[in-house]
Amino acid sequence: MVETPVSLSEELLPAERRQQLIQWFQTNVSGTNQELARMFNISVSTVRRDLDSLAAEGIVRRTHGGAVRIRSRTNFEPSTDLARRTAIEEKNSIVRHTLQMIEPKQSIIIDSGAVIAHMLAEELSVQSIPLTVITNDLYVATTLAYKEHIKLIVPGGSCRFGSYGLLGQPGLDFLVDIRCDCFFMSAQALDLECASETLLDVMLMKRAMIEAAERTVLMLDSSRFFDRALYRTVPTETFDTIITDEGLSEEAIEKLRLRGINLEIAKL
After folding, report:
1. Do the bridges between strand 66-69 and strand 60-63 make them parallel or antiparallel, or are there none, so unpaired?
2. Domain boundaries defined on the chain
3. Cβ proximity of 74 and 228 under 8 Å
């Protein structure tokens, strides 16, 4: 996060203070309550109230410890470093919930390019659950390598710059002959219509993994809901289960469940 010098105080009118927060979020994607309070020289309770107001206006989306800017461009993709600092408690709760769905001796696919997939791999590496794991993510593969309880399979491909994901035809060809139990997937964005991605190659790989699995579970923190990226992956109804955190409003939950979507809320 860029700590832009700011001049805010409790003495400003709430509308003036929130306008300066809006300007800050135009150049910064996310911030925690504590970081914003320090940078703007205001109390954490004031930050929370201001962020709640901005969230009500649709400018930011609240996370457990702060807020993230609502994306205005369909090709926006946060860096891995930024994603590791955004909605951490929410992602942890989703991973804990997901672990309860994994059974011994299953064959599973773990998605690439997502911090939440990396966190799931880290948890599985210290568990004793015997699994066959297929992944095109080098971080996931490295985390699960040399684990006696894990049979690891890594499809081929070219490593995408700035990411751990292997993409391309070798992996797509390999997945044609795979029939596994479950695919644990991430996404750049999800709305009532579909999940979507910023890159064509990533979208094609996810489609191939969905075809290779009997069930697909989408792990997605609430900041990525009701947004869209450039490439449509699959309809939202495709997912057997969607796991998210408590950040979704009751209205949003109701909209999704009215579409027949099996939505599970992970408790913080």
Report:
1. antiparallel
2. 14-69, 80-265
3. yes
Torsions phi, psi for 40 (to 5 deg) = -95, 0
Does position 2 have pLDDT exceeding 50, yes or no? no
CATH 1.10.580.10 for the 80-265 domain, yes or no: no
Check pLDDT > 70 for residue 85.
Answer: no
Question: What pTM does this model have?
Answer: 0.75
Q: What is the CATH number of domain 14-69?
A: 1.10.10.10
Contacts of 60 (CB under 8 A, 6+ apart): 25, 51, 54, 67, 68, 69, 70
